Amino acid sequence: MFHHSSKLQFPVRVEKPDPEFAMLLQQAIGGVEGEIRVAMQYFFQAMGARGDVRIRDLLISTATEELSHIEMLGYAVALNLEGAPLSYQEASAKDPGGQRHSGRHESAPYPLFGAGGDAGERQRHAI
Questions:
Q1: Where would I find the H helices in 5-113?
Q2: N or C: which end of the chain has fewer CB within 10 A?
Q3: pTM higher than 0.70 for the full model?
Q4: How many structural domains are present in the chain?
Q5: What is the pLDDT of residue 108?
């Protein structure tokens, strides 16, 4: 069972909106090593946990905490897109997992960032 509060756990502030950074933040939400993957991994481990109920509860609590990270990151993405040209907002909507910026997509403008690829691959494309 989940309880949701509309108040964020921590305040999210952005001094100056940065649409490029917003697109990079999307990688932290839905990318290869993103919060969504981590939350689902904890949920899956909890469902298979046998024995001590405290271990299962710990895993479910950790997964729930990861969901709060997704909420804060999503809010930060929205704040960084405020006032951005429509082209950035549309590109962000088409690439919700941030693959364009992860180093795994051939047209990534910032292949050095993200969890994708090996060090040699990223080194070759470093800016």
A1: 19-30, 35-48, 53-81, 86-94
A2: N
A3: no
A4: 1
A5: 40
Residues 6+ apart with CB under 8 A from 114: 24, 27, 31, 32, 98, 101, 102, 103, 104, 108
CATH number (domain holding residue 50):
1.20.1260.10
- pLDDT attached to residue 99: 55
Range of the domain at 30: 19-124
pLDDT band at 9 (very low <50, low <70, confident <90, very high): confident
Please check whether residue 3 lies inside any domain of the structure.
no
User: pLDDT tens, 52-95?
Assistant: 999 999 999 999 999 988 999 999 999 998 887 777 767 767 76
- Confirm if 31 and 115 have CB atoms less than 8 A apart: yes
Whether 24 contacts 105, CB under 8 Å: no
In a domain, 64, yes or no: yes
The answer to whether residue 62 is domain-embedded is: yes
- The answer to whether the beta carbons of residues 103 and 113 sit under 8 Å apart is yes
The answer to whether 74 and 67 have CB atoms below 8 angstroms apart is: no
Rg (CA), the chain: 17
